[in-house]
Amino acid sequence: MPENTTPPSTRSLRLGVAGPVGTGKSSLIATVCRAMSQELNIGVITNDIYTDEDARFLRSAGVLPAERIRAVETGACPHTAIRDDVTTNLLAVEDLEADFAPLDLVLVESGGDNLTATFSPALVDAQIFVLDVAGGGDVARKGGPGIARADLLVINKIDLAPHVDVDVEQMVADATAAREGGPVLALSRKRQETIDELSTWIRWMVAQHRDGAHTPQDPGPMAPHFHADEEGGYIHSHDEAPGALHQH
Ligand SMILES: Nc1nc2c(ncn2[C@@H]2O[C@H](COP(=O)(O)OP(=O)(O)OP(=O)(O)O)[C@@H](O)[C@H]2O)c(=O)[nH]1
């Protein structure tokens, strides 16, 4: 093999799905499984703070055999499990890949989290960041590492746009500008043509990964943020070394 050529990958594409609480991450994963499980061999890992609620939702949706959907319980700081100490998630992904080999695609859902949570490239090969129109048309313009540099930005629930006074075209244009031209997809699980576009992007990304043509990018650490606790809360940031103490 010539030097400097990335070999084709025999491992699954590990695709992270992040975004604020309730933007539709679980629904997007259910939609992808429903649309693509005939052509791709798929597994799913969910991250929840204290429960396996997202995994149970996906199992009950019947979009994949239940044993292909596994839950990681992350504790109070869910972005830590996808960014700073990815060990539990990595083990869960590797177990799933071993049990159902060869998988084409493992979708890893982050716990519903704040606007800037991103995955470590040590855990996923590519990531989707999900916003929804109900969060307001301005959100995309505000940027942040996930919005600016995820491999794909999804603006979800566009069927709701008329009810929340959001101009989808404008929101997509603002997001595209914030991403300096990176891909942005307007999605609704009620509009088949948007589901087809999402499937096309995933098919392309799986092929890129298989051919060794895709290099995982780190969108960057999340912004400093606030956690409420019994003593009132604390601010911490993730640009510190893994395991560093929270700033109180
Ligand atoms: N109208 C509409 N509602 C949607 C769409 N996608 C998801 N929803 C609804 O949005 C709500 C949140 O969806 P979820 O998929 O649970 O969101 P999530 O991001 O996984 O939520 P967390 O895991 O709690 O962060 C649910 O009531 C879904 O039914 C969509 O395309 N259109």
From TrEMBL:
Q: Which UniProt keywords apply?
A: Chaperone, Cytoplasm, GTP-binding, Nickel insertion, Nucleotide-binding
Location in or out of the cell = Cytoplasm
Domain annotation CobW/HypB/UreG nucleotide-binding: ranges: 16-184
GO terms, biological process: urea catabolic process
In this chain, the stretch annotated as Disordered covers: 211-248
Q: Which residues bind GTP?
A: 19-26
GO molecular function terms noted in the UniProt entry:
GTP binding; GTPase activity; nickel cation binding
Which GO cellular component terms are attached?
A: cytoplasm
- Quote the InterPro entries the UniProt record gives: CobW/HypB/UreG_nucleotide-bd, P-loop_NTPase, UreG
Principal place of residence: cytoplasm
Cross-referenced HAMAP family, in alphabetical order? UreG (MF_01389)
Q: Which family does it belong to?
A: Belongs to the SIMIBI class G3E GTPase family. UreG subfamily.
What does the UniProt record say this protein does? Facilitates the functional incorporation of the urease nickel metallocenter. This process requires GTP hydrolysis, probably effectuated by UreG.
Q: How does this protein assemble? A: Homodimer. UreD, UreF and UreG form a complex that acts as a GTP-hydrolysis-dependent molecular chaperone, activating the urease apoprotein by helping to assemble the nickel containing metallocenter of UreC. The UreE protein probably delivers the nickel.
What NCBIfam families does the entry give?
ureG
Question: What's this protein's name?
Answer: Urease accessory protein UreG
Q: Which organism is it from?
A: Arthrobacter caoxuetaonis
Q: Which gene encodes it?
A: ureG
